[in-house]
Amino acid sequence: MATSGPRRAVTSDRRIERSTQTRAALVGGAIDALREVGFAGASAREIADRAGCNQALVFYHFGSVTDLLLAALDDVSARRLAAYAEILDRSVSLTDIIGSAKEIFSEDLDAGYVAVLVEMITGAQSTPGLGEQVRARLAPWRDFAESAVRKAVRGSPVEYMTPAREIAHAVMAGFLGLELLANLDGDRAAALALFERARQIAALLDLTQTAFPAGTEAEGDPA
Q1: How far apart are CA 127 and CA 221, in angstroms?
Q2: Where exactly are the structural domains of the chain?
Q3: Which of 26, 135, 205, 220 is 20 to 30 A off residue 37, Cα-Cα?
Protein backbone atom coordinates (compact mmCIF):
# COMPACT_ATOMS: atom_id res chain seq x y z
CA MET A 1 0.00 0.00 0.00
CA ALA A 2 2.90 2.34 0.70
CA THR A 3 3.81 2.45 -3.01
CA SER A 4 0.29 3.04 -4.31
CA GLY A 5 0.68 6.82 -4.20
CA PRO A 6 3.93 6.98 -6.22
CA ARG A 7 2.62 4.38 -8.67
CA ARG A 8 -0.53 6.41 -9.23
CA ALA A 9 1.61 9.50 -9.83
CA VAL A 10 3.74 7.68 -12.41
CA THR A 11 0.64 6.32 -14.13
CA SER A 12 -0.91 9.77 -14.19
CA ASP A 13 2.27 11.28 -15.64
CA ARG A 14 2.32 8.64 -18.38
CA ARG A 15 -1.31 9.33 -19.22
CA ILE A 16 -0.61 13.05 -19.48
CA GLU A 17 2.41 12.38 -21.69
CA ARG A 18 0.41 10.07 -23.97
CA SER A 19 -2.41 12.59 -24.13
CA THR A 20 0.03 15.36 -25.04
CA GLN A 21 1.61 13.20 -27.74
CA THR A 22 -1.79 12.26 -29.16
CA ARG A 23 -2.93 15.89 -29.28
CA ALA A 24 0.32 16.88 -31.01
CA ALA A 25 -0.07 14.06 -33.54
CA LEU A 26 -3.65 15.10 -34.28
CA VAL A 27 -2.64 18.75 -34.74
CA GLY A 28 0.16 17.65 -37.07
CA GLY A 29 -2.28 15.45 -38.99
CA ALA A 30 -4.72 18.35 -39.29
CA ILE A 31 -1.99 20.65 -40.64
CA ASP A 32 -0.97 18.07 -43.23
CA ALA A 33 -4.61 17.45 -44.19
CA LEU A 34 -5.30 21.16 -44.69
CA ARG A 35 -2.19 21.53 -46.85
CA GLU A 36 -2.75 18.43 -48.96
CA VAL A 37 -6.52 17.80 -49.21
CA GLY A 38 -7.94 21.15 -48.10
CA PHE A 39 -10.65 22.08 -45.63
CA ALA A 40 -13.31 19.99 -47.38
CA GLY A 41 -11.14 16.87 -47.23
CA ALA A 42 -9.94 17.33 -43.65
CA SER A 43 -12.36 14.88 -42.03
CA ALA A 44 -11.90 13.19 -38.68
CA ARG A 45 -10.96 9.94 -40.45
CA GLU A 46 -8.46 11.67 -42.75
CA ILE A 47 -6.76 13.47 -39.88
CA ALA A 48 -6.73 10.42 -37.60
CA ASP A 49 -5.20 8.28 -40.35
CA ARG A 50 -2.41 10.81 -40.76
CA ALA A 51 -1.92 10.96 -36.98
CA GLY A 52 -1.93 7.17 -36.68
CA CYS A 53 -4.75 6.97 -34.17
CA ASN A 54 -8.48 6.26 -33.83
CA GLN A 55 -10.76 9.00 -35.18
CA ALA A 56 -12.75 8.94 -31.93
CA LEU A 57 -9.73 10.64 -30.32
CA VAL A 58 -10.38 13.71 -32.46
CA PHE A 59 -13.62 14.30 -30.57
CA TYR A 60 -12.22 13.14 -27.22
CA HIS A 61 -9.37 15.67 -27.29
CA PHE A 62 -10.88 18.55 -29.29
CA GLY A 63 -14.65 18.15 -29.26
CA SER A 64 -15.06 18.67 -33.00
CA VAL A 65 -13.12 18.60 -36.26
CA THR A 66 -13.50 22.38 -36.57
CA ASP A 67 -11.92 22.96 -33.16
CA LEU A 68 -9.03 20.67 -34.13
CA LEU A 69 -8.52 22.60 -37.36
CA LEU A 70 -8.47 25.84 -35.37
CA ALA A 71 -5.86 24.28 -33.07
CA ALA A 72 -3.82 23.47 -36.19
CA LEU A 73 -4.09 27.10 -37.33
CA ASP A 74 -3.05 28.25 -33.84
CA ASP A 75 -0.01 25.96 -33.93
CA VAL A 76 1.16 27.17 -37.33
CA SER A 77 0.50 30.82 -36.44
CA ALA A 78 2.37 30.65 -33.15
CA ARG A 79 5.44 29.03 -34.68
CA ARG A 80 5.58 31.34 -37.69
CA LEU A 81 4.91 34.48 -35.66
CA ALA A 82 7.80 33.58 -33.34
CA ALA A 83 10.07 33.00 -36.33
CA TYR A 84 9.04 36.28 -37.96
CA ALA A 85 9.55 38.22 -34.74
CA GLU A 86 13.05 36.79 -34.39
CA ILE A 87 13.91 37.80 -37.95
CA LEU A 88 12.47 41.29 -37.45
CA ASP A 89 14.49 41.75 -34.26
CA ARG A 90 17.66 41.05 -36.23
CA SER A 91 16.78 43.58 -38.94
CA VAL A 92 18.26 47.04 -38.48
CA SER A 93 17.23 48.71 -41.74
CA LEU A 94 14.36 48.72 -44.21
CA THR A 95 16.56 46.81 -46.65
CA ASP A 96 17.06 44.12 -44.00
CA ILE A 97 13.32 43.88 -43.43
CA ILE A 98 12.58 43.46 -47.15
CA GLY A 99 15.26 40.79 -47.34
CA SER A 100 13.68 39.04 -44.35
CA ALA A 101 10.25 39.23 -45.96
CA LYS A 102 11.65 37.55 -49.08
CA GLU A 103 13.16 34.81 -46.91
CA ILE A 104 9.87 34.30 -45.06
CA PHE A 105 7.95 34.20 -48.34
CA SER A 106 10.12 31.40 -49.70
CA GLU A 107 10.00 29.43 -46.45
CA ASP A 108 6.20 29.64 -46.29
CA LEU A 109 5.84 28.45 -49.86
CA ASP A 110 8.22 25.55 -49.31
CA ALA A 111 6.43 24.44 -46.14
CA GLY A 112 2.88 25.15 -47.37
CA TYR A 113 2.00 27.22 -44.29
CA VAL A 114 -0.06 29.71 -46.24
CA ALA A 115 -2.29 26.87 -47.43
CA VAL A 116 -3.43 26.27 -43.84
CA LEU A 117 -4.70 29.83 -43.47
CA VAL A 118 -6.18 29.93 -46.97
CA GLU A 119 -8.09 26.68 -46.41
CA MET A 120 -9.43 27.94 -43.08
CA ILE A 121 -10.59 31.17 -44.73
CA THR A 122 -12.21 29.09 -47.46
CA GLY A 123 -13.92 26.87 -44.89
CA ALA A 124 -15.23 29.91 -43.06
CA GLN A 125 -17.44 30.70 -46.04
CA SER A 126 -19.56 27.60 -45.39
CA THR A 127 -19.08 26.90 -41.66
CA PRO A 128 -21.16 29.06 -39.29
CA GLY A 129 -19.07 30.82 -36.66
CA LEU A 130 -15.72 29.85 -38.16
CA GLY A 131 -15.17 33.21 -39.86
CA GLU A 132 -15.20 35.04 -36.52
CA GLN A 133 -12.71 32.55 -35.08
CA VAL A 134 -10.33 32.92 -38.02
CA ARG A 135 -10.60 36.73 -37.93
CA ALA A 136 -9.69 36.72 -34.24
CA ARG A 137 -6.58 34.70 -35.03
CA LEU A 138 -5.52 37.23 -37.66
CA ALA A 139 -5.46 40.06 -35.11
CA PRO A 140 -1.93 39.25 -33.79
CA TRP A 141 -0.69 39.23 -37.39
CA ARG A 142 -2.14 42.68 -38.00
CA ASP A 143 -0.45 43.96 -34.86
CA PHE A 144 2.83 42.35 -35.89
CA ALA A 145 2.62 43.77 -39.41
CA GLU A 146 1.94 47.23 -38.01
CA SER A 147 4.92 46.94 -35.68
CA ALA A 148 7.12 45.85 -38.59
CA VAL A 149 5.91 48.75 -40.72
CA ARG A 150 6.56 51.27 -37.95
CA LYS A 151 10.09 49.94 -37.58
CA ALA A 152 10.63 49.93 -41.34
CA VAL A 153 9.54 53.53 -42.02
CA ARG A 154 10.76 55.17 -38.81
CA GLY A 155 12.60 58.36 -39.69
CA SER A 156 11.70 58.22 -43.38
CA PRO A 157 9.26 60.49 -45.26
CA VAL A 158 6.81 57.57 -45.48
CA GLU A 159 6.32 57.72 -41.71
CA TYR A 160 4.46 61.02 -42.06
CA MET A 161 2.57 60.25 -45.26
CA THR A 162 0.44 57.17 -44.50
CA PRO A 163 -0.77 55.60 -41.22
CA ALA A 164 1.19 52.45 -40.36
CA ARG A 165 -2.06 50.54 -39.83
CA GLU A 166 -3.12 51.14 -43.43
CA ILE A 167 0.27 50.14 -44.80
CA ALA A 168 0.22 47.00 -42.62
CA HIS A 169 -3.17 46.02 -44.04
CA ALA A 170 -1.87 46.45 -47.59
CA VAL A 171 1.28 44.47 -46.77
CA MET A 172 -0.76 41.58 -45.33
CA ALA A 173 -3.10 41.52 -48.31
CA GLY A 174 -0.23 41.76 -50.78
CA PHE A 175 1.85 39.11 -49.04
CA LEU A 176 -1.03 36.66 -48.92
CA GLY A 177 -1.97 37.41 -52.52
CA LEU A 178 1.59 36.85 -53.73
CA GLU A 179 1.78 33.51 -51.95
CA LEU A 180 -1.58 32.44 -53.36
CA LEU A 181 -0.57 33.33 -56.92
CA ALA A 182 2.84 31.69 -56.57
CA ASN A 183 1.15 28.58 -55.21
CA LEU A 184 -1.40 28.55 -58.02
CA ASP A 185 1.10 29.17 -60.82
CA GLY A 186 3.81 26.97 -59.34
CA ASP A 187 6.24 29.79 -60.11
CA ARG A 188 7.57 32.23 -57.55
CA ALA A 189 9.86 34.13 -59.95
CA ALA A 190 7.45 37.06 -60.45
CA ALA A 191 6.95 37.47 -56.71
CA LEU A 192 10.69 37.30 -55.99
CA ALA A 193 11.24 39.96 -58.66
CA LEU A 194 8.83 42.25 -56.78
CA PHE A 195 10.78 41.69 -53.57
CA GLU A 196 13.95 42.67 -55.42
CA ARG A 197 12.32 45.89 -56.65
CA ALA A 198 11.12 46.61 -53.11
CA ARG A 199 14.64 46.01 -51.82
CA GLN A 200 16.02 48.58 -54.26
CA ILE A 201 13.44 51.15 -53.12
CA ALA A 202 14.21 50.28 -49.50
CA ALA A 203 17.89 50.93 -50.11
CA LEU A 204 17.04 54.44 -51.34
CA LEU A 205 14.85 55.09 -48.29
CA ASP A 206 17.63 53.86 -46.03
CA LEU A 207 19.93 56.40 -47.66
CA THR A 208 17.30 59.10 -47.03
CA GLN A 209 17.16 58.15 -43.36
CA THR A 210 20.95 58.34 -43.16
CA ALA A 211 21.04 61.76 -44.80
CA PHE A 212 18.10 63.15 -42.81
CA PRO A 213 17.87 61.28 -39.50
CA ALA A 214 14.70 61.65 -37.45
CA GLY A 215 14.62 64.68 -35.18
CA THR A 216 17.32 66.54 -37.14
CA GLU A 217 16.62 70.15 -37.91
CA ALA A 218 18.30 72.13 -40.62
CA GLU A 219 20.62 74.77 -39.23
CA GLY A 220 20.31 78.24 -40.75
CA ASP A 221 23.18 80.56 -41.55
CA PRO A 222 24.26 82.68 -38.61
CA ALA A 223 22.70 86.10 -38.63
Answers
A1: 68
A2: 69-211
A3: 135
